[in-house]
Amino acid sequence: MPFLAFAGIFLVYPTVLVLIGAFQDTNGTFTLDNLTNLFKGVYFDAFVRSIELSALTAVIGAIFGALLTWAIAVGNPDGMLRRIVVAGSGVLAQFGGVPLAFAFLATVGFEGLVTKFLRDNVGIDLFAGSAWLFELPGLTLVYTFFQIPLMVIVFLPALDGLRPQWREANASLGGTSWTYWRHVGGPILTPPFLGALLLLFANAFSAYATAAALVSQGSPIVPLQIRGFLTGEVVLGQENLGKALGLGMVIVVSIAMGVNVLLQKRVAKWVR
Q1: How far apart (Å, rounded) are the C-alpha atoms in residues 169 and 180?
Q2: Would you say the C-alpha torsion 27, 32, 33, 34 has a positive or negative sign?
């Protein structure tokens, strides 16, 4: 009951306020203008950039995270390397927000340690072309930092679920490694891999604090657009547009997580 009360106050109640406010104007009258504005101008562009950023970091994180997960899954299950990687992934997957932004600023910022070393000793200026760290390329690099360890945490149980008996049965029937991955390992791992990919997409799409700490000028993605409305930087008569943006994010994340649930149900049937 305490948990349900906590979730109701800090999750359900705000969601209901966003849902109601998205369909109201400043006078509380029902309107669809807030939602139609999502498909226009800077707001639509922000959704496109957010989806592109989330999809790109999800793919990068899923590929490199899966390779790292495979490297530790085929090793000693009780080995030191596995324990270090799993423990480190648990920490780094939650290392976001302002601390992560500061870490990158101190490392590859305008006066970061690596930036100054390359400029003074190698003659390479990381910011010769543009201030990429504070734009979408920089967000892609920073988001990937916590996407890869999250993939390790999510995908490792699927790899551990591959039973040695399946490979032995394939070999006893004259199958090759290609046969095993084509007809056994691949079909079993595909749903959890896609599910993890969707989870990474939702994780990046909803991230706010890291982007807010890095990007101080402009609002290239949806969470930063919503920040503008919450801090009072609104156009008169469009106060509820921020709630419409929030509703749009809820819909996108709900679709991604809904597909993830369907994929997980398929995995459960395979590994019973």
Answers
A1: 9
A2: positive
What's the DSSP call for residue 74? Answer: S
Reported as a single tens digit per residue, the pLDDT across 21-57 is: 999 988 888 999 999 999 988 999 999 999 999 999 9
Reduced to 3 states (helix: H, G, I; strand: E, B; else coil), residue 30 is strand
Cβ(195)–Cβ(260) below 8 Å: yes
The predicted model scores a pTM of 0.90
**Residues 259, 198: contact at Cβ < 8 Å?**
yes
Mind listing the pLDDT tens digit for each residue in 107-161? 999 889 999 999 999 889 888 878 888 888 999 999 999 999 999 999 999 999 8
Please state the separation of Cα 185 from the chain's center in Å: 26
| Closest among 104, 92, 174, 106 to 133, alpha carbons compared | 104
End-to-end CA distance of the chain: 33
The residue with tokens 């970091």 is 57
Which residues have C-beta within 8 Å of that of residue 130, sequence separation ≥ 6?
A: none
Question: Which residue has better confidence, 96 or 140?
Answer: 140
Three-class SS state of 161: coil
Q: Packing angle between helix 136-160 and helix 186-205, nearest 10 degrees?
A: 140
Tell me which residue of 191, 158, 190 sits closest to 264, measured CA to CA: 191
How many whole angstroms separate alpha carbon 216 and alpha carbon 213?
A: 7
Count of CB atoms situated within 10 Å of the CB of 174 = 7
